[in-house]
Amino acid sequence: MTHLSATKKGITIAGVLILTSIICFYGLHLPDNGNSQYLMLGLYITGIIWVLLSYHSRIDYAGMKEYFSEGFKTFIVVTLFMIIYTFIFQKLNPQILEKGIIENNALLQKQGNKTPDEIKENAEKLRSIFMPMMLMLNTIKYLILGVLVTVVTAGFLSQKNNSVANS
């Protein structure tokens, strides 16, 4: 029986995440930054755990290093695909940025301590940093969560291996 590599499983997980995002945004009309993000993160975590459990079932013994390597190959691929998807998604949906700018402008006007020119300048700054900020935040989010889930799961699975090996 052939096993999918961690990289191919990462591509599969990314595909599921992208499809879920598309269904939530376009099909269910949920906001891109709403509660659907919890579903996305849950699927991401589940995917990494699936990869590590699958690896665990194929081998007799592995240490923390081997599990982390397997998880790393997975979450790096997922992160890459999700960053590409984020870029394309944001380019195809400029209304998300514009809605955010309108909401921010309204808040600044309510505060009453900014002139119309300052509010306009602030909107232009937001426009210029939006894409790099979105890409950076998503990169950090997927990398940190990937590392945490991998380390915790790898630690748990390598402990199980140690207890079996010491029996």
From the structure above, extract its key features:
167 residues, mainly alpha, 5 helices, 0% strand, elongated
Radius of gyration: 21 Å
Helix share of residues? over 70%
Characterize the main sheet. Answer: none
Order of helices and strands: HHHHH
Structural class: mainly alpha
Total helix count? 5
User: Total strand count, please?
Assistant: 0
Q: Strand share of the residues?
A: under 5%
Give a verbal description of the structure:
The structure is a single chain. The protein has 167 residues and is mainly α. Helix content is 85%, strand content 0%. The protein has 5 helices and no strands. The protein has helices at 6-27, 36-58, 64-92, 94-111, 116-165. It is elongated and about 65 Å long. The relative contact order is 0.15. The model has no long low-confidence stretch (mean pLDDT 89).
Layout of secondary structure:
Blueprint: H1 6-27, H2 36-58, H3 64-92, H4 94-111, H5 116-165
Helix pairs in contact: 1-2, 1-3, 2-3, 2-5, 3-5, 4-5
Q: How would you concisely characterize the structure shown here?
A:
This protein has 167 residues and is an all-alpha fold. Helices cover 85% and strands 0% of the residues.
